[in-house]
Amino acid sequence: MAEDREILREIWEGRLPVCFTLATEEVSTPISPDPFYLMVPRLTYFPLVTDKVRRHFVRCVVPERHDNEMWLEFEKCPLKWHYPIGLLYDLLVTNSELPWQITVHFDKYPDNKLLKCPSKDVVESHLMHSLKEADALKHKNHIMALMQERDHKQLWLGLLHDRFDQFWSANRKLMEHSAEDGFRYIPFRLYAPQLTSKPFLQYLVKPIENEKKLTLEDLLQRANLNMESKGPFQIVIHGIDIPLETPLQWISEHLSYPDNFLHLCIRYSSN
Predict the structure, then answer these.
(1) Same domain membership, residue 260 and residue 198
(2) I want to staple 207 with a disulfide (CB 3.0 to 4.6 A). Which of 75, 182, 197, 218 is the partner?
(3) Mean pLDDT of 206-215
(4) What is the Cα Rg of the chain in Å?
């Protein structure tokens, strides 16, 4: 993968401009606070980059809500903090208008739609759980089990502090495979809200079968969804339209999120 390090860095450095605005009904000051603008990494999670957002707005809500957990919303849809930011954007924003307009709340936390996230430790636990799940698919969990605690911390701190080299010094171990066989299975989630009521689809797909490299098109065919029924579509990850003939092994090595999963969104041109 050394020759493709530039691709990994390009993906890592992907950013989205976001405009955060406090919900009008929660403003308790005579003058509404100004919006707060941030350039956020696509690969990270909102709780890791919104400390400044909280400090900016919390002074403008009633004191009894100062300790409430902050949550975010886009067009009346609560944003799942355990989804990477880039996935949320690719999944929910259909007009690609920037900056992304997000509403901030300190009241009426939607427990029925969002997991609680009282601290960054919860995000770390979520990341480690996802990495172990991905490694179980790729290597029967052998790599994560053999890694030392400091390697796990490298992964977490690299993501937390947006340090590419720190993260990849450990993550490269999770991308190791035999040249002939690739990974056991490809860790992925396919998001198709137009076609299924499930939050995402996940099933076992090998990158190589009978000495043939499987492609993104092969993965989609096994979803048993009539994808073309809604018209022409794209498969998007990191805001990129991935050609269907791209080999799965290559996509998994180069375009996985830090949790080592491919988060693939079906987008229709009519959207």
Answers:
(1) yes
(2) 182
(3) 94
(4) 20
User: What is the domain-level CATH number for residue 201?
Assistant: 3.10.20.90
**What pLDDT, on the 0 to 100 scale, is given for residue 76?**
95
> Which pLDDT tens digit goes with each residue over 143-164?
999 999 999 999 999 999 999 9
Domain that holds residue 68: 13-105
The DSSP secondary structure of the chain, one letter per residue, reads -GGGHHHHHHHHT-EEEEEEEE-GGG--SSSPPPPEEEEEETTS-GGGT-HHHHHHHHTTS-GGGTTSPPEEEETTEE--TTS-HHHHHHHH-SS--SSEEEEEESSS--TTTS----SHHHHHHHHHHHHHHHHHHHHTTHHHHHS-HHHHHHHHHHHHTT-HHHHHHHHHHHT--BTTTB-SS--EEEE-TTT-SSS-B-----SEETTEE-BHHHHHHTT---GGGGSSEEEEETTEE--TTSBHHHHHHHH--TTS-EEEEEEETT-
Structure tokens at 10: 């390009």
62 against 229, higher pLDDT: 62
- What pairing do the DSSP bridges indicate for beta strands 212-213 and 188-191? unpaired
Amino acid letter, 209: E
Both 26 and 99 in one domain: the answer is yes
CB-based burial label for 211 (10 Å; 0-12, 13-18, 19+): exposed
- Specify whether the CB–CB gap between 17 and 99 falls below 8 A: yes
Instruction: Output the pTM of the full model.
Output: 0.95
**Those residues with Cβ within 8 angstroms of residue 62's Cβ, 6 or more apart along the chain or in another chain:** 28
For residue range 20-33, what is the model confidence (pLDDT) as tens digits?
Answer: 999 999 999 999 99
- Same structural domain, 256 and 195: yes
Strand partners, 74: 77
Examine the domain organization and report whether 21 and 90 are in the same domain.
yes
